[in-house]
Amino acid sequence: MIAVGEKAPLFVAEGTQGEVSLGALLERGPVVVYFFPKANTPG
């Protein structure tokens, strides 16, 4: 698990408009990464 303030590992994920690369986004400036549970799932 990543602690608050710790750097996230670089990753590539499938987005609604194609692949999203954390490394490419970081080249443009600071990034906030937020994960949320899929709709209609417990938790």
Task: Give a written overview of the molecule.
This protein is of the alpha+beta class. It is about 15% helix and about 20% strand. It has one helix and two strands. It has a two-stranded antiparallel sheet with strand order 1-2. Strand 1 (about 10-15) and strand 2 form a beta hairpin. The relative contact order is 0.15. The model has no long low-confidence stretch (mean pLDDT about 85).
Helix/strand layout:
Layout: E1 12-15, E2 18-21, H1 22-28
Write down the Rg.
13 Å
- Which structural class should the secondary elements be placed in? alpha+beta
Ends: how far apart? Answer: 18 Å
Q: Could you tell me the strand content as a percent range?
A: 15-25%
**How would the global form be characterised?**
flat
Mean of residue pLDDT?
Answer: 86
Question: Please, how many helices?
Answer: 1
Largest sheet report: 2 strands, antiparallel
Uncertain regions: pLDDT < 50 for 5+ in a row? none
Features:
43 residues; 1 helix; single chain; 16% helix; alpha+beta; two-stranded antiparallel ribbon
Outline of this structure?
This protein has 43 residues and is an alpha+beta fold. The chain has one helix at 22-28, and strands spanning 12-15, 18-21.
